[in-house]
Amino acid sequence: MEIVIVPDAAAGGELIATAIAELLTGKPDALVGVATGSTPLPIYQALAAKVRAGALDVSRARICQLDEYVGLPKGHPESYRSVVLREVLEPLGISESAFLGPDGSASDIAAAATAYDHSLAEAGGVDLQLLGIGTDGHIGFNEPCSSLASRTRIKTLTEQTRVDNARFFDSLDEVPHHVITQGIGTILEARHLVLLATGEAKAEAVAQAVEGPLSAFVPASALQLHPHATVVVDEAAATRLKLTDYFRATYAAKPAWQSL
């Protein structure tokens, strides 16, 4: 993995947005996988600024979803489809017709998950997938002990994950218990994986994923298997890493790096 330590969340967002912009310049119809939550917001804000400035053309870009709650009605403001429309597509001016996502309100959730998995392959695969990391090391909603070969499927959320996500709802009782998530095996098929982690609360999970052993108990450690995985962390999220000096020197010495 490439480990990049940045001063703060805004710097991480700008760096990753630059990488996405370079991808779209070379491949205008690239399929970019997005993540939800507060961590990736600086990325989307930086991308929107580039679009407004006329520095980035996203007219042919395609966007796909990492995961979705099960059971929320269509149009619910906290469904991840609604969140992606609100935080990514609308600010960038990308049509909803360019968006791929699973149907969390389908009558047959297992079939909807499989159909979404197939749709990603039929679209030519994901060019760049954005990821966050949970405090327990999960990526997407692949909780600890998920199979490292798993495909898109329904998963039951741990109580800790529901507590972490309760801030987006009026109460913990409103947080769904199940989700459709891209499996770890599905995620690993993306051509470039970019994980952004910010804040001291993520420091231990980052250290285990980056410097710990490959383990289903820390799903994010599966990024160690990927040929092009980049982990961008701010100073707070890097506090538990043992090789920070090495990571800083490696990034600084790489010639002509303008992005990831």
Automatic annotation (TrEMBL):
Pathway: Amino-sugar metabolism; N-acetylneuraminate degradation; D-fructose 6-phosphate from N-acetylneuraminate: step 5/5
Gene3D superfamilies: 3.40.50.1360
Catalytic activity from the UniProt record: alpha-D-glucosamine 6-phosphate + H2O = beta-D-fructose 6-phosphate + NH4(+)
Domain of life: Bacteria
Any one Pfam family match given in the protein's UniProt record, by short name: Glucosamine_iso
The protein's enzyme class: hydrolase
Keyword Protease: no
Annotated ranges, domain Glucosamine/galactosamine-6-phosphate isomerase: 10-224
Known EC number: 3.5.99.6
Description of how activity is regulated: Allosterically activated by N-acetylglucosamine 6-phosphate (GlcNAc6P).
Function: Catalyzes the reversible isomerization-deamination of glucosamine 6-phosphate (GlcN6P) to form fructose 6-phosphate (Fru6P) and ammonium ion.
PANTHER family for the chain: GLUCOSAMINE-6-PHOSPHATE ISOMERASE
Protein name: Glucosamine-6-phosphate deaminase
Lineage: Bacteria, Bacillati, Actinomycetota, Actinomycetes, Kitasatosporales
